[in-house]
Specification:
Elements: E1 3-9, H1 15-26, E2 30-32, H2 33-42, H3 46-56, H4 63-74, E3 82-86, H5 92-105, E4 110-116, H6 119-127, E5 130-132, E6 138-139, E7 154-156, H7 162-184, E8 189-193, H8 198-224
Parallel strand pairs: 1-3, 1-4, 2-3, 4-8
Antiparallel strand pairs: 5-6, 5-7
Length: about 230
């Protein structure tokens, strides 16, 4: 069975960093819809070009198209040993579609981890986040004034002002609450304290995932024996 992980977390929770770190440690791909879409457009894949056409018209990419993009990505052999999903699913529709994909592909249980961080800490983190004015590289308050990648000037993102950040967090909470409700009752759903140093979050994430894998295996065994 593969190690199949969904990473959830508000903006500033560090889920992208932890997803990248976890995927690298276990040698499985980190999959985000943004990355898939950019690569798909580069490769001129039909489903990605449909999404591009919608975005070019100023439209949101619908759930069906996003699901189709993810479905194609999960067909690749590099996901046989597992994967880390970052930014998908975002809705209950997408979550239900992912369940069907997992069942069709026989990929085993999903581990769902929510990286939880108090709002005050998220505000502090996002207020200190900056971006390179040249290449767009993200940076934190401890990274100096110059970009480590290209040497460009680091500036605060326009959408990281406190008022904008508060609204983004409200939008995230409203959008994600139904998704959390969808997964909360599963034996493989876990919450990790993200208000720690990254190394401690990574340690807890690793332990939590391994515990959840055991729960998922036991749940599958119970299903196969009719709950006996």
């Amino acid at each position: 069975m593969g190690l199949n992980l969904i990473m959830l977390g508000a903006p500033g929770a560090g889920k992208g960093t932890q997803a990248e770190r976890f995927a690298g440690h276990y040698g499985v791909p980190k999959i985000s819809t943004g990355d898939i879409l950019r690569q798909g457009i580069k490769d001129n894949l039909p489903v990605a070009m449909i999404a591009k056409a919608k975005m070019d018209r100023g439209e949101l990419v619908d759930d069906e198209t996003i699901v189709a993009i993810v479905r194609e990505r999960l067909k690749r052999p590099d996901t046989d040993a597992g994967f880390v999903l970052d930014g998908f699913p975002r809705t209950q529709f997408q979550a239900r579609a992912l369940d069907r994909i997992m069942e069709e592909r026989g990929k085993g249980p999903l581990i769902i981890v929510d990286i939880a961080v108090p709002e005050a800490e998220l505000l502090r983190r996002l207020a200190g986040r900056r971006v390179c004015s040249k290449c767009g590289e993200n940076a934190g308050p401890a990274d100096g004034d110059d970009c480590r990648r290209c040497g460009g000037q680091l500036i605060q993102r326009a959408d990281d002002s406190e008022a904008v950040v508060r609204e983004r967090l409200k939008v995230y909470q409203r959008a994600t609450e139904p998704l959390i409700d969808y997964y909360r009752g599963r034996s493989t759903f876990r919450i990790v304290n993200g208000a720690q140093a990254p190394d401690f979050v990574a340690r807890d994430l690793d332990a939590t995932v391994h515990d959840a894998v055991g729960s998922g295996d036991r749940a599958i065994g119970a299903q196969r024996t009719g709950g006996r």
